[in-house]
Each structure stands twice: as structure tokens, then as C-alpha cells.
Amino acid sequence: MSTDRSEYYPNQQFSVSYSSLSSLNTLDLYLPRPSSSQRLTHKYWIIYIHGGAWRDPLISSRSIQPALSYLSSEEFPIAGVVSLNYRLSPYPTHPTHPSLPGDVARNARHPAHIEDVLDAISWLQREYDIGEKYVLVGHSCGATLAFQVVMDQWHSIAGADPGTNHFRMPCAIVGVEGIYDQSQLKDSFKDSEYAAVYQEFLEGAFGKNERIWSIASPGNADFAHIWKAGKLVILAWSKDDELIDELQIVVMQKALDEGKNENRRDLITQLTGKHDEIWKNGVQLANVIKLALHELV
């Protein structure tokens, strides 16, 4: 278990390394009080996974910051907030920060992204003893990664065995404007101005074989046989979202309904605003996190 790195609280720590694989294997920590405090017993950790189509270098762990000012640890049962970075897929055509072929941090392909997320959570469980008392919150492809955490096949790849005490599953997952079926997303926008962009970033993240896309899609997971200890799922989506259509929610809701767990509540909540506005203004992202905490206590 970690010893706290500062005597001053609330304490913020940026770019903390959880792995030596690359410069992007880091996380940001926001600690309202020492992690050894007995007052944390009935509180939850929030672990945020940013979006950006698995490749955008300008969307990072810092994208949680607008929401932080609306999350009072005194008003809500928050032990700490963690925001993850992970290796990105290639983006050589980015207008200001193109990726280079030799950059390990920006030439990742699935399952590297989920391996990094699992590594980060394992690190937190070792260093801060968070156990299963954490809520995974993901925006866009971050929501994909959040649900992939409870999909067993990636644990064997990353060496995090859910059957041992070395890795504890989350108690709740919040998917915000999430991608839950990659092939369906591509098909939904095949006649739009974004068609080539979707094809490019999905192939960059997962390769050309759409069978791999299907296996990696949370909307195709069998929730009847995975994550049996889960207590809560919240799917949040805005009708104003110009990048993710409602079919993604429909697909994910169907998967959850077919794999219904009597111990798990599944909620859908409506947001307003465009895709990135949800995290940029902070209010709605914070409100969804508050809803999760309210449902858990």
C-alpha cells in the first residue's frame, strides 16, 4: 500500500507513472485526504478514462479537470479521483501533433489500450488498496475501455486474473457517450462526411479484421457470465451528440438486459450537448458521477 506523497490535502499529483512502457503510462491523482484515513471506509474511488478515438493526443487525463470543481468530497462519498492516460493508436495526420512511427506511446493497437487500463487499476489496487470500491467512468472510447475491464478475455492477455485476489472488479461502470459496437458505429456513419474518419481510427485502433472489432465490442459481451459482482451500470448519452448515435445505447442496453444480474441496477440517463461538450463544461460529467454515488450509497 502506498504512503502518501504529500502532507498537504487536498492533494493533486500529475503524471504519476504506473508502468514504464511509455510516456503515456501515467495517471493523475486527486486526493481529498490521506489514503490511510479511516474516514475512507464508506467512500468510493472514481477512475476516469478519457476518450479521443483511441488516438487524439489533445484529449488526455486532464480532461477530468472541468468536472472536479463540481465534485465535493465532503458532499459525496469520494475517497479519491484518478484519471488515466494510456498508449494511443497512430494519428500521423493530426494537424498539430502528428504521431511518429518510432513513438511507442502513440503506435498502440488493441489490446494495448485495455492492457494499460488494467495495469493502471492493478497499480492502484497495490498502492492504494482500493479493492473493488471504485467506479469506472469512461467517455466515448473510454467507455469502451471501462466495459472491457470486466470482459474476461483481456485479463488473461494482460496477466490480471480476475479469479485471484490480485485484481478486483469495479462495483460500478458509467459509460458516457460510449462506443459499444465498433462495426455498428462504422455502419451508422458510412454515408456521412465522417465515414472515412471512422474507418481510419477504427482500423488504427483494432486493425482491418472486423472479427476483432466484434470480440472487443462490449455490446457483444455475455454479461450473464461476467462481472457477477457488479452493482450498477449507468449509460449516459445526449441526443445532440454528433459523433455517437443512439444505436450504441440500444446495443449496450440489449447486452445488459440479456445478461441481467439481480444484484446489478442498470440505468439510462439523458444528457444535453455535443459529444465533447459533456466533459469540457464539466457539469454534466460531474452530475453523472454524482448519480452513480447516490445509487451506490
- Report the portion of residues in β strands: 15-25%
Mean pLDDT: 92
- Helix/sheet category: alpha/beta
Contiguous low-pLDDT stretches (5 residues minimum) are none
- Adjacency order of strands in the biggest sheet: 1-2-4-3-5-6-7-8
Biggest sheet descriptor: 8 strands, mixed
Quick one: how many beta strands? Answer: 8
- How do the SSEs run, as a string of H and E? EEEHEHEHHEHHHEHEHH
State the end-to-end CA separation: 25 Å
Evaluate the radius of gyration: 18 Å
Q: Rough shape?
A: globular
Give a structural overview.
The structure is a single chain. This protein is of the alpha/beta class and 297 residues long. Helices cover 31% and strands 17% of the residues. The protein has ten helices and eight strands. An eight-stranded mixed β-sheet has the order 1-2-4-3-5-6-7-8, with helices on both faces. The model has no long low-confidence stretch (mean pLDDT 92).
From the structure above, extract its key features.
297 residues, alpha/beta, eight-stranded mixed beta sheet, 10 helices
Topology (SSEs and partners):
Layout: E1 11-17, E2 26-31, E3 44-49, H1 65-68, E4 78-84, H2 112-128, E5 134-139, H3 141-148, H4 152-158, E6 172-176, H5 182-188, H6 195-206, H7 210-216, E7 232-238, H8 247-258, E8 265-271, H9 277-280, H10 283-296
Parallel strand pairs: 3-4, 3-5, 5-6, 6-7, 7-8
Antiparallel strand pairs: 1-2, 2-4
